[in-house]
Amino acid sequence: MSATWGKKLKITVFGESHSEGIGVVIDGVPAGVKLDFDAIKAEMARRAPNGGEFSTPRKEGDEFELLSGVMDGVAEGTPICALIRNTNTKSSDYSQLRDVMRPSHADYGYRIKYAGFNDIRGGGASSGRLTAPIVFAGAIAKQLLSAKGIEVVSHILSVADVEDKRFETEITGEVINSLKGKTLPLIDGGKEENIRRVISAARADGDSVGGRIECAVVGLPAGFGDPMFESMESVLSSLLFSVPAVKAVEFGSGYAMTKARGSEVNDSWQFDKNGDVVTKTNNNGGVLGGISTGMPVVFNVAIKPTASIFKEQDTVNIATGENVKLSLKGRHDPCIVVRALPVIEAVAALAVYQFVGE
Amino acid sequence: MSATWGKKLKITVFGESHSEGIGVVIDGVPAGVKLDFDAIKAEMARRAPNGGEFSTPRKEGDEFELLSGVMDGVAEGTPICALIRNTNTKSSDYSQLRDVMRPSHADYGYRIKYAGFNDIRGGGASSGRLTAPIVFAGAIAKQLLSAKGIEVVSHILSVADVEDKRFETEITGEVINSLKGKTLPLIDGGKEENIRRVISAARADGDSVGGRIECAVVGLPAGFGDPMFESMESVLSSLLFSVPAVKAVEFGSGYAMTKARGSEVNDSWQFDKNGDVVTKTNNNGGVLGGISTGMPVVFNVAIKPTASIFKEQDTVNIATGENVKLSLKGRHDPCIVVRALPVIEAVAALAVYQFVGE
Amino acid sequence: MSATWGKKLKITVFGESHSEGIGVVIDGVPAGVKLDFDAIKAEMARRAPNGGEFSTPRKEGDEFELLSGVMDGVAEGTPICALIRNTNTKSSDYSQLRDVMRPSHADYGYRIKYAGFNDIRGGGASSGRLTAPIVFAGAIAKQLLSAKGIEVVSHILSVADVEDKRFETEITGEVINSLKGKTLPLIDGGKEENIRRVISAARADGDSVGGRIECAVVGLPAGFGDPMFESMESVLSSLLFSVPAVKAVEFGSGYAMTKARGSEVNDSWQFDKNGDVVTKTNNNGGVLGGISTGMPVVFNVAIKPTASIFKEQDTVNIATGENVKLSLKGRHDPCIVVRALPVIEAVAALAVYQFVGE
Amino acid sequence: MSATWGKKLKITVFGESHSEGIGVVIDGVPAGVKLDFDAIKAEMARRAPNGGEFSTPRKEGDEFELLSGVMDGVAEGTPICALIRNTNTKSSDYSQLRDVMRPSHADYGYRIKYAGFNDIRGGGASSGRLTAPIVFAGAIAKQLLSAKGIEVVSHILSVADVEDKRFETEITGEVINSLKGKTLPLIDGGKEENIRRVISAARADGDSVGGRIECAVVGLPAGFGDPMFESMESVLSSLLFSVPAVKAVEFGSGYAMTKARGSEVNDSWQFDKNGDVVTKTNNNGGVLGGISTGMPVVFNVAIKPTASIFKEQDTVNIATGENVKLSLKGRHDPCIVVRALPVIEAVAALAVYQFVGE
C-alpha cells in the first residue's frame, strides 16, 4: 500500500470497502481558510452511488465526520481527518470470491501481494469506494485553487463510441459554468441522449461500457511545474493512474500529434490583445518541458469498461487449481465514467495545488 | 527543478546542455554487483547523436567518467556518480533565443519559472541531452532487473502514419532478441523502409515527425506495485512524462478499451499448460488495481514531432513585446523517436526496479 | 504540521487535545501478522493518565477503535487506522489562554505559525496527548521487532537529582525482564522511594521536575543504519525530538566522551566466547558511522520539567500588549518522565524498524 | 547509503575518500541569487586539513569545480554540482585494514552492511572528508539565510576539560563578529592557550581529545518548525548526527534542565523595550513544541575524541578470526573539534533553511 501522497497538501487514505470506515487525513490546509462544506458534500454526492440510471442501485451517502483540524468551519492548520463510516456492507456475497478471481479486477494481484490476508469483501482496499476520501481532499484542493483564480473542470469526452467535442483552445467562463453541476457534462449537449442510450443498453445486457473524460485546469499561470522528475505531467499522471479503471492519459492532442509534422502541431506563441503571451493552438495541453505555459492544462483519460459484469466469464479458482466459469451477482455500475468525473477533477486539483500551494 | 527521483535506486541528475558537464548520482546499487560497462556504453550509444540518418548531424560521444561508488567494476554500495563532460558546445547560436521563444519548447516556462536566470544555451536544463544520465542509470537498472529474470524491451510502434504491429499477448524470448540491438526495432520488419522514408522526407522539408514507442517489461511476477498512490502505472507514467516530448501514455489496449464493452475486453484468467495463472488477453497491460498480474507490463508512449524545425514559425519576442517570425538554425533531429527508445526503456527499468529491488 | 513519518512503516498522526478524536494511520504492517492487542492496550495504559501518584488526576482510557487494516486480529497489509475519541474535554478553562502565553509551552510559536487559528484547548495539536497514537504505532513496531529477536527496553535514568545506574555494556534478558511491566523501571531499585519523594514534593509545591530516560535496543545485528543522512542516530534522534519535552539526546557515553582521550573511550573489538564480534565497552552506544555495531543501541534523553506548573509566572498578553502574571489551573503531571517511558520506547521501535523492516 | 537530504534545498553527496572525486548536487538554490564563492572557499578552508597545529599534517585544498547550475556566479535555479577531486590519496597504507577493524570507527558496520565491497581506503564513504561537500552546501545555505537576516555562528564550548562560557541569552552582533573568522572561536578568549595545550599534549602522546561545539542561529523569527515529526529540533538533530563523531545534542540548557524544577527553568515571556515578545531566559534554546520562539536557536554537540590514535589498541582480524593488536600509522587529527566547527554550522544552516527557504 502506498496510502500517502503529496507535499503541499499531504493526503493519507485509509479503509477498505467493508471495514469500519474509510477516510483521509489531509495535512497542509493553510490555517484560517474557511472551508465550504456544502461544496464538499456536493462533490461527494457526484461520486456517491445514488441508485440513478448511471449508477449501481446501491446507495451510500458518503457522509463524513470531521475528526480533527477544523474549528467552526475554519481550517486550524493541523491535519484534517474525515471519516466515512461503511454502512452498506452486505458481505454475504463474497465467500465465493475468496478463491475465484474476477477478470480485470485487482483480486489476483492483491492475493499474491498480501498473501491472501487482504479483505476481499467489496474489493477491499481496491474498491472504487476508496475514491470517496480522495474526492473529499480534492474538493478542498479545488477551493484552495479557486481562491487563486484557478478552476478545474471536466466533461465526458466519450462513452463507448459516442463522442463529445474537445475543449476549444480558449476555455471561457461560460463553458466552465455550462459544465458545472451537470450529471452529464458535455460540450455538445446534443450527445446526452446517445450516451444515456448506450449506457442503458449495456446495463440491459448485464454488460458495461467505458469512455473518456477530458479535464482542464483553467487560470494556471505560466511557470509552474518542475523540470525533470516532477513535471506537471508527471505529477498529474501519477495521480490519475491511481484512480481505478484509468488506463491511458493524453495531454493536449496527445496521440494525434504523433501523426502530424512539427510544423502542423507546434503551438505558436503570440501576444494576445491584452498583451499576454498565449499560444494560438494548445496541442501541448498547456505544458511544455514539464512547466505550465499559461494556457489551460488540458488532458484526457481513458476509463475502461467496469470490470464487474453479469455475463458469464472464464476464470480460475486458485484454491482448486481449476479453470472455472464466473457469473457475478450484486450491484454494479454499467459505466463508471459518470461517477469518475469528480474523482478526475479531485486528483487534478490535488496535483496542481502541489505546485501552486503555500 | 526536481532532480532527484526514486527509493530503491535514488537518482539525482544535474547539468545543462552547455554547462561544464552533466551527470547522475545513483544511490542504492547493491554492494557487490558486477556492472557491465560495455552494456552501459552500448545503451548510451543508442541515445547519443551519431550524425546518422535519424539523428542530428551533431556528434557527442557521451563518454562518462566514474567519480565514485565503483571499484574494479564492482558496485561498492555507495553512491555512483557518473560525469559526462559537455564538449560540443558551440554557443554562438543562442543569443537570438534569449528573448525569442521557440514554439513548443520549454523556453517560455523556464523563463518565467527561473526569472530569466536559466542557461538557455542548447535548451539548458530542458535539453534532451539530460536524458543521457538517465540512460546511464537505466542501463544499470536493466542489469539489476535482468539478474532477476526481468527484461525491458521496446519497439517503434509508429512514425507519423507508418504503423508497426503491437506486441502479442505472449512476448517470447525470440521476439525480445529480435528487437535488441536494432537501430529500428520493429515487430513487422517490413515497415523499416517506410519509416526511413517518412523521416527523410521530414528532414528534407526542414520539418519533423513524431511517433509512438511500445515497451514491455517481461518476466515481472504478479504482486508488484502498490495500490493507490504508487500503482505500477503511476510510477511508470510519472517517469515516462519526465522524458521530453512524451505527451501520452497508454497501458495495454488503453484508449481502445473505451470503445468496447466489458465482456469484450475483460482479461479472462486461466491456468496455462504449466499450471501458471495467466490471462488469455492482456488488454490491461499486465497491471490491475496498480499491481502486476504476472503478464508482461505493456505500455506505449506518444512522442511528439521534434519541436525544433527549420521552417519559419510565428512567435514572440518577450523583450520587445512584439510578435515575430523565427527560423531556427543549427542541428536538429528530424524524428526523436529512434533515439528515445533507450530512454523509454531506461525509465521503465528504473520504475520497475522501484518495486522489485532490494 | 508534519504529521507523516517513515518508510517501512509510514505513520500519520491526526487530532488535537479537544477535537472529536485523535488517531494514527499506519501503513506498512506486513499482511498476515497477528497483532497482540492486549500488548498494545498495555502500552497505551502505561502512557495514559490514570490519576495515580505520577500522573495528572485526569483519567483518559485512550481506548481505540480500529477503523481499517485489521481483520480477525490479523493485519491485512493495508493501512491500519486507529481512532481514539476525546472524551474528557472540559474546555471551559481555556478562554484565558487565548492571549496569555504559557511559559515554556508551544503556545506562542503555534499562535504565530497558525495565525491564531489553531485550537488552543488543552494545548491543541501540541498536547502531550498526541503521543497516544504514537504509542499505538510503536507498540506494533515493538511486536514486529520482537519477532526478529529485537527488544526495546527503557528505565528512568534520573528524576531531578536522583540518579539510577546506567545500563551495563551487556544487557541481559534478566535485566530486560526486570524492567518490563514496572511503573518505575529502575536498574537500581533502591532509588524508587527517592524518586517517589522528589515527585511528591514537586507536586505539593505546585511545581514540577524533569529527568532522564535511558533506552536500549537489544538484539539488533550489526550493519543496520545508513551512512550520512539516515544514520541510525539521525533517525532515532529525529523521532526522539518529536516527543514533547525532550531537550537532549546522548548516544552511549555521549558528553562524557568529550572529557576523555581516545585511548580511554575507544571501544575495542574482540571475539567473545561464542566467536561473535563484540566491543569490550560500549561508549559509542552501539552505533559507529551511523551503522549498528551489533552491541545494544543505547541512548538517553533529557525530559524537561513539565512546563505546566501552578506557581505564578511572568508572561505576556498578546492581545493587550501587556506583561502579566499567570497562575495555571487544572490538572497537570508533576513529572512527565514516568508516562514518557512508553513514548520513548515507541519512537525507538519505529526508528529501528525503519532499518530492519520488510 | 542515504546520500540525499532535504526539501527546500535538496542535497546529494557522493564520493569516497580515495575515489576519483567527492562532491555534492544542490537542488533548490533560487534562480538569480549571486553566490559569494570567496565566502564558500573560506568555509571550505576552515574545514580542510591544513597541516596546522589542530590538524592532521595532510594538506588537501578541497578545491571545487562547478559542473552545473551557476552562470557568471549567479544561480540558474537548476541543480548546482560541485566536484572536489581527490588528489592526496596515498593508498598503500590500507592493505592492513581490510580485515583488521579500527576501534570506534565505522569499519565493521560498513563491512557487514556492504558485504566487504566498500572501499576502505581512507575510510571510504565514512571518511570525515565527506563533510567537505556538506560545508560547500552549507556555505550556500548560510548566504541564503544571511539575506534573510539570519546568522549561524558557533564556538568551541570545551575541549577535554577546558570549558568556554556558554552563549548569553541575548547574542549580540558584537559577539557574532568576535567569533567569525577565528580558528579557535571562544567566548572566553582566555581559554585559548589552555585549549592549544590540551590538544598538543594529546598529539604528543599519539592520542586524541574530544570536545563540544555550541552553535546559535540568530535572527530566526518565531513560528518556524513543524510540530510533530519535523520539529526544528528533529531536523537539526537529524543532520547533526549525520556528522561523524557527533554523539550527543543538547538544545538550550538540555540536561541541566532535568536537575531543576519547572519554576526554575521555565522561560518567562515578556515584551522587551521594543515591544517584541522575548523570553527572559532561553533554557529551551529558542524552540518550544518544535517551533522557533524568536529567541536564538541554541544547541551544542558532543564530538568524541578522534577515533584514530597511534597508541596500540585491541581489536579483531575478521579474516583470521583472531584478537589482535593494532597500531595505526599515517596522518590523523589529534582533535577534530576545530575542523568540525564549519561542518556544524553548515548543517545548522541547511536545517534552518529547510523551514525558512523559498
Q: What does this molecule look like?
A:
The structure is a homotetramer of 358-residue chains. The first copy, chain A, is of the alpha+beta class and 358 residues long. Chain A has eight helices and 18 strands. In chain A, helix 1 crosses helix 8 and helix 6 packs antiparallel against helix 8 (337-356). The interface between A and C is large, with 43 and 43 residues.
Helix content of chain A: 10-25%
Beta-strand proportion of chain A: 15-25%
The two chains with the largest interface, and their residue counts, are: A-B, 109 and 109 residues
Structural class of chain A: alpha+beta
Strand order of the largest sheet of chain A: 1-2-3-7-4
What gap, in angstroms, lies between the N and C termini of chain A?
28 Å
List the uncertain runs of chain A. Answer: none
Largest sheet of chain A: 5 strands, antiparallel
Principal-axes shape call of chain A: globular
Count the beta strands of chain A.
18
How is this structure best summarized?
The structure is a homotetramer of 358-residue chains. With 358 residues, chain A is an alpha+beta fold.
Write the layout of secondary structure elements.
Four copies of one chain form a homotetramer.
Chain A: E1 4-5, E2 10-14, E3 21-27, H1 37-47, E4 64-68, E5 70-71, E6 74-75, E7 80-85, H2 107-113, H3 131-146, E8 151-159, E9 162-163, H4 173-179, H5 192-204, E10 211-218, H6 232-240, E11 246-251, H7 262-265, E12 269-271, E13 277-279, E14 287-288, E15 291-292, E16 297-303, E17 313-317, E18 322-326, H8 337-356
